[in-house]
Amino acid sequence: MKMTDTQPLVSIVTPSYNQSRFLQAAMDSVLGQSYPNIEYIVIDGGSSDESPAMIAARGDQLAYWVSESDKGQTNAINKGFDRAKGEILAWLNSDDTYEPHAVAQAVEYLSAHPQVGLVYGEANFIDEHGRVIGRFPAAQTDHARLRQGYVHIPQQAAFWRADLWRRVGPLDENLYFAMDYDLWLKLTAVSEARYLPGRVWANFRLHGDSKTIAEDERGWDEMVQIHYRDGGSRLSIITIKYVFRKLLAPLVTWRRRSRVRQAREYGTDE
Is this prediction's pTM over 0.85? Predict the structure, then answer.
């Protein structure tokens, strides 16, 4: 990436482990951004597939990369942000991708709205071949609504200010699934979050091995744990949602698996 002195530096971290079939697309989507001032950091957990070679091949375009054993995705993201020097931060998982103007539009908005600490746009659901199969239900939320389980922030399409990260970070490494939800809570406790409808910034890949498909129930388990940690009541909206979500979890998982299966079999876009 070409560096400039006048535009804010954006630091993007990609954690990765044995995701070589998707990693190249993720890296290309960062390195192909229209915004020129990006430092890109890739933290690989010691993959046994082709990932280390893929990363090494792009090494001259990366600010930093490593392939070594770590304590999992959350730890890898924290390791990346420990290296970050940017004014604006984001992470992109190794099976997701950005749209080409995502970073430029996020920087433009944050530069024009200094009271906003977190900005996010839309994210498509895509299948293993990159075909659009749906849209993440993004919506405006805030700290109070997040406490109620009204999340609606696509992590892939979220950008926030580094000075706020230094106040509320790092990610809680005891969390496997809801570390982003925990971060949104902490950021919105000290700043404003803003949703930009109609701005498609990212693609959230659903595939058979993705956490969202294979282990989605753990997300709500951890969200409720965070709720109790922060002094939340057992008689609250989020705990009611949790009970219903647990009851409906098999149906939710089945629907997501069916969507991925249909896209694989018929190659249809939605």
Answer: yes
